[in-house]
Specification:
Strand content of chain B: under 5%
CATH superfamily of the largest domain in chain A: P-loop containing nucleotide triphosphate hydrolases
Order of helices and strands of chain A: EEEHEEHEHHHEHEHEEHEHEEHEHH
Largest sheet of chain A: 6 strands, mixed
Number of helices of chain A: 12
Largest interface: A-B, 39 and 32 residues
Strand order of the largest sheet of chain B: 1-2
CATH architecture of the largest domain in chain A: 3-Layer(aba) Sandwich
Radius of gyration of chain B: 24 Å
Distance between the termini of chain A: 24 Å
CATH topology of the largest domain in chain A: Rossmann fold
Distance between the termini of chain B: 34 Å
Number of domains of chain B: 1
Number of helices of chain B: 13
CATH class of the largest domain in chain A: Alpha Beta
Radius of gyration of chain A: 23 Å
Order of helices and strands of chain B: HHHHHHHHHHHHEEH
Structural class of chain A: alpha/beta
Strand order of the largest sheet of chain A: 6-7-8-3-9-10
Number of domains of chain A: 2
Oligomer: heterodimer
Shape of chain B: globular
Number of strands of chain A: 14
Helix content of chain A: 25-40%
Number of strands of chain B: 2
């Protein structure tokens, strides 16, 4: 797979503050790539540099082989960008809005007509064709903004916090839409500080904090590299002292970093081992006569991963260094 | 880059962009009743004002018996024409900046400029497209007033080319002060601040610089010292209109005296229009041999004369118009730079390598 989005030591400095301090990215074609980090980590700055809206202080980035510094116009033709905060024009109908952006890309009239129809179908706004843009709901505006980024059939989509301000249903719709776009062959770079949102969607992520990429790659790979393992939850059929004894037993096992009793009586374990290790742990627990009803990995892997990674001061070592 | 490729590049990127912006802006501006109402109101104001000025001039003319009534008609025509030009200049000085001062700052306020900046249309297209479509509205108003202005031909005293001069000056005024609005709109993030600053700039250009001239004229020895530069008035479109009015007077009226004072020339007092014609009026000196045979002498008629001072007409306003156009180009170029998200103040010259190789320069 070839990298379609590549950032190479991007640095952006505003007067005194360093917004990003050397971001490297490598996104393969056809991926949904998540840029994860707390607010102020440099996600938006990175995306704006990729979108040719900001010039990096140092470093360069390439989109589909074009440099954002030297060939911004070529980059703009292969790129669709949806900023985190965006407005809509007053006094514009939905189709006119898309028509305007299609004109900006110099599409001929017949193509514009066809594409506007297709896109409105895609984002499910076909019945709002003649509605005024400012009268749409937030979720609809978001979808319209996504549609506008697609008028020129870009290879790469940069979406900055696309789900912010959306209700759960709109989020699900957006997620479905992004999956559909991926099947259409788009590469999608998406930023968010809401982790579960990305976890279900992304094929790989970069964890960004304080202007640096702390970890980069497939979620499973990063996990492996960190040996964070996961959070395991064991529902133990006991209470009081027996439950505490079970917790203490777990705490004494190898690869268990921490164990705690949740209010509902579940024992939660910070586990550093892999899947085989988890199996061995479960076997040992049963052998130790602990009455376990359920035993599972907690769902929010990425969240744990994120806390783990951003808690460190140094970037996570690369795979070969960690091995 | 050769001229041809440059042209191709410009036409490829700028023209569709200007069209796109223009279509979008005009769709918004001309939608519904708004455009219709504003043109109607503007025309009504202009027509009402013209009628009132006409009434005033007619009333005052009726109290004077020393002149021929046809001469008086020409005088009334000139008066109405000048009043219309001054009124329209005033309205354009308000309308043109007001319609452009929000164009780019409102995109920033509504956070739509980014959406525009990531499309391949150039900043030139964004700024020029917005300026032109905002001005189109002002142009429509100006054009709508032409039939009203044409009514002065009923009275006489004003030739069609005088009207053309006046309207050229009006269009130039709209472009220049529209460009100032666009500049402040791209400089300042808030539309309110942009509008405010634009009107401060308009006041400086019109009243401020003119007042400096007056101050300098009053405080220097008027006879021997050089008079203050007339360029201080170039940004004042009223003075340009005064010169246009002077053209209708054949060089001797009170409007001409203002221009004489400003430019320091009074040759035109010897009479004659610059294009070798003169309109018969109060002071127009027509050489006896220049009076054609036939039923002439109807005041307000335009007669050809062999004028030795041809060229003295239009001695001021073309310079003012040119300065205003240069100002418009300068402010537009500055606005383009301010809109460009990257590479500010760094025009790329073909063939000159960049100083710094991108990437790997931090280590």
């Amino acid at each position: 797979m070839t990298a379609i989005v590549r950032a190479d030591g991007l640095v952006k400095r505003y007067d005194r503050t360093l917004a990003i301090a050397g971001v490297d990215l490598d996104v393969a074609e056809g991926e949904i790539f998540g840029l994860v980090g707390p607010n102020g980590a440099g996600k938006t700055t990175t995306l704006r540099i990729l979108a040719t809206l900001l010039e990096p202080t140092a470093g360069d980035a390439e989109i589909a082989g074009w440099s954002v510094r030297r060939n911004p116009n070529e980059v703009r033709r292969v790129l669709g960008f949806m900023p985190d905060v965006f407005g809509v024009y007053d006094d514009m109908r939905v189709w006119e809005y898309l028509d305007f952006f299609a004109r900006c890309y110099g599409l001929p009239a017949a193509t514009r007509k066809r594409i506007i129809g297709d896109l409105l179908e895609l984002v499910d706004l076909a019945d709002k064709r003649n509605a005024y843009v400012q009268g749409l709901s937030r979720g609809m505006q978001q979808r319209l903004c996504l549609a506008h980024a697609l008028v020129h059939d870009p290879k790469v989509l940069l979406l900055d916090e696309p789900a912010s301000g959306l209700d759960p249903r709109a989020r699900v719709e957006l997620r479905e839409l992004l999956r559909e776009l991926r099947t259409l062959g788009k590469t999608i770079v998406i930023s968010s500080h809401i982790l579960p949102e990305l976890e279900e969607l992304c094929t790989s992520v970069a964890i960004v904090d304080r202007g640096r990429v702390l970890a980069h790659g497939r979620i499973a790979d990063i996990e492996q590299r960190l040996r964070v393992g996961a959070v395991l939850r064991a529902r133990v059929l006991a209470d009081g002292e027996a439950l505490e004894a079970a917790r203490d037993w777990f705490a004494g096992q190898p690869d268990v970093a921490a164990s705690a009793i949740l209010p509902d009586g579940t024992v939660e374990l910070g586990f550093r081992g892999d899947e085989a290790g988890a199996a061995a742990l479960l076997r040992a627990a049963i052998a130790a006569d602990i009455p376990i009803a359920t035993f599972s990995r907690a769902a929010s892997d990425l969240e744990e991963l994120f806390l783990q990674v951003t808690g460190q001061d140094e970037p996570v070592p690369a795979p070969e260094a960690a091995a | 880059m050769t001229g041809a490729t440059l042209r191709r590049r410009v036409s490829r990127l700028a023209m569709p962009g200007i069209t796109a912006i223009g279509v979008k802006e005009l769709r918004g501006r001309m939608r519904g009743k708004r455009a219709f109402v504003s043109v109607t109101v503007y025309t009504l104001i202009v027509a009402g004002f013209a009628w009132m000025v006409g009434r005033i001039l007619v009333e005052s003319a009726q109290n004077q018996f020393q002149f021929d009534p046809t001469y008086q008609a020409a005088s009334i025509g000139r008066g109405i024409f000048m009043a219309l030009m001054i009124l329209q200049t005033l309205m354009i000085l308000v309308l043109a900046p007001a319609s452009t001062a929000g164009t780019i700052s409102s995109e920033r306020e509504k956070q739509t400029l980014d959406l525009l900046a990531v499309t391949p249309i150039s900043s030139v297209a964004i700024v020029v497209g917005k300026l032109l479509s905002a001005l189109t509205w002002v142009f429509v108003l100006i054009l709508a007033s032409i039939p009203v202005t044409a009514l002065v031909f009923v009275y006489g005293g004003v030739a069609p080319d005088d009207v053309i001069r006046g309207y050229v000056m009006l269009f130039v005024t709209a472009i220049a002060f529209g460009a100032i609005g666009t500049f402040f709109s791209s400089l300042l993030r808030r539309s309110g601040a942009a509008t405010g600053m634009t009107f401060v700039a308009v006041l400086i250009a019109t009243v401020g610089l003119s007042f400096i001239w007056v101050f300098m004229r009053a405080t220097t020895d008027s006879f021997f010292a050089r008079r203050p530069p007339e360029a201080l008035f170039y940004l004042n479109p009223f003075v340009g209109q005064v010169d246009v009015a002077c053209g209708t007077e054949g060089g001797t009226g009170s409007w001409c005296q203002i221009i004489d004072e400003i430019t320091g020339t009074s040759l035109a007092n010897f009479g004659g229009g610059g294009d070798g014609r003169v309109i018969i009026n109060e002071g127009g000196v027509i050489p006896p041999d220049a009076v054609p045979a036939g039923p002439v002498g109807r005041f307000g008629d335009v007669v050809a004369v062999n004028d030795p001072f041809a060229g003295e007409r239009d001695r001021y306003w073309p310079r003012s118009a040119l300065t205003l156009m240069l100002l418009a180009v300068g402010f537009t170029a500055a606005a383009v730079q301010l809109v460009t998200p990257t590479r500010r103040w760094r025009p790329r010259l073909p063939g000159i390598p960049r100083r710094r190789r991108p990437g790997r320069s931090t280590e």
